[in-house]
Amino acid sequence: ANAIKALDTLKPSDIGEVKAMKNPPAGVKMVMEAVCVMKGVKGDRVKDPEGSGKMVEDFWGPSKRLLSDMKFLQSLKDYDKDNIPTKTMKVIRDKFTCNEEFNPELLKKVSAAAVGLCSWVCAMEVYDRVAKVVAPKKAKLA
What we know:
142 residues, mainly alpha
């Protein structure tokens, strides 16, 4: 329910604003990478912009493709939260929800869409943890 509430705060204009960003702030990129991970979208392999010469995963191209989908918000509302792959949640927990900058409150200054999408990812992580950790314990106690 919290995840849907987070998405209900988003307007198509918020999504359009993010999609139009040529060089999005780090917070927006981080949130969109998390959404890509949740949706199983792989990053593009690009040369490291830092100049290391290595190939790195860049999620901004795939993020813009996701945001261009007219059914993007609906696809998040319809997300199969009961069957989130363990591997997906491991990445979300190891890379995003443990990061203090991955916080809807901190993203308010950056982008309304980032706030809503970050809230959605956080709500999905909590739901998954409760469903997979608490529910089996409750069942044992019953």
